[in-house]
TrEMBL record:
GO biological process entries: proton motive force-driven plasma membrane ATP synthesis
InterPro entries: ATP-synt_VA_C (IPR055190), ATPase_F1/V1/A1_a/bsu_N (IPR004100), ATPase_F1/V1/A1_a/bsu_nucl-bd (IPR000194), P-loop_NTPase (IPR027417), V-ATPase_su_B/beta (IPR022879)
MF terms in GO: ATP binding; proton-transporting ATP synthase activity, rotational mechanism
Domain ATPase F1/V1/A1 complex alpha/beta subunit N-terminal: 11-67
Function: Produces ATP from ADP in the presence of a proton gradient across the membrane. The V-type beta chain is a regulatory subunit.
This protein's record includes keyword Repressor: no
Domain ATP synthase A/B type C-terminal: 355-454
Family affiliation: Belongs to the ATPase alpha/beta chains family.
Pfam families attached to this UniProt entry: ATP-synt_ab, ATP-synt_ab_N, ATP-synt_VA_C
Keyword annotations of the record: ATP synthesis, Hydrogen ion transport, Ion transport, Transport
Gene giving rise to this polypeptide: atpB
Record domain ATPase F1/V1/A1 complex alpha/beta subunit nucleotide-binding: where: 132-350
Protein name per UniProt: V-type ATP synthase beta chain
Superkingdom: Bacteria
Amino acid sequence: MKGIEYRGLNSIDGPIMIVRRTENVFYGETVYVRDRSGEKRTGRIIDISDEAAVVQIFGSTTGLDLGRTTFEFLDRPLELRVGEGLLGRIFNGLGEPIDGYPKIISDESVNVNGDPINPYARIYPRDFIQTGISSIDGMNTLIRGQKLPIFSGNGLPHNKLAAQIIRQARLKNSDSQFVMVFAGMGIKYDVARFFIDTFEESGVLAKVVMFQSLADAPSIERIITPRCALTAAEYLAYKKGMHVLVVMTDMTNYCEALREISTTRGEVPGRKGYPGYLYSDLAELYERAGRIKDSEGSITQIPILTMPNDDISHPIPDLTGYITEGQIVLDREMSQKGMYPPVAGLPSLSRLMKDGIGDKMTREDHAAVSAQLFAAYSKVKSIRNLAAIIGEEELSESDKCYLHFGEELEQKFFCQDEYENRTIEQTLDIGWKLLSGLPREDLYRIKSDMIDKYMPAKET
């Protein structure tokens, strides 16, 4: 029976408490818990048996005792209030305002777990998103409705790169602008402040919805943060017809919170102690990106995760790579050389790139230039390994030519200023200029008529 407060807990272990089950409670239901002084905390049911219900508290359980704590089942899942006033606001991980302004005035609340999308209703992503960053636009193109994660490491400039993408992202051949939804999980205060200041200085804060669960917030809150963010994104995309870019950082902190809860519940661990359902839990978040029929809006996701020990085979990046459509990998060696953005040329890829580039979308030569740059850069890596063994002096003239090409590619194509916004035409022109330094017979991935049309004359 709803609206009734029950007294007494069976047990408390960290953020998990076990209560006596009543009739008609359901998995995911919201629970209000009050301590002996009447202070209210929010939780949700995460497991049910015939006799008991397991409740996960979003916050500290300090002050709760077994005999005098009361709890109330609300007969509804955890919900986020949505409405016209979402844009320009900053919320905590549970969707409560923390920017000093009142709650959103709206009578519409939405289940944070979202509604499943009928696969038949999905539209295949095809529209090119210009980020202004050559290493992404030219070789790892972002497509509207795609989920393209950034694989990074501690100390690498992934936050700076994400902020640049948010500032500069726009649809090619369209006046439609992106609105942004930002979800920070377990991030430090200076990181949160960096994003807020960056958005304010560039004038995009009015088009951003921010959800922040800082490092000093209960780790359990990180489980809900991306769900609140994606619920806001779905409202803006599918109800308001907006193009939404969702940036979630750091997914590693999210997975650590999942592992913490799993351990507390005594579940059998999987790889490296993470729960066996890590794949399906991540898929539940990532698959909320995309486009659907009868809606002008779209959701494009850029999850950011820091790979523990820069290990790309770690369960978090490994499973993320299976679910998403590619990855942008940041390279520590490039970053240590002072290169920005340090996007690794060969491990990065975008699986939807082929469907969003070419004539009438970017430029007819885009696919060929990208493929040739990949092939040439791969040869550069092989020659560098050879040079490390026999010495650069022993290399042939052709190999030295490729070494020079590799240096030029990294310095002029991969590297650019944090506030430099290149068009796709500028990116491709830079690529052609670099390829002009290679022998024409080596450009086997580009048709001859295209070389004649776009290749600049060699400088004398």
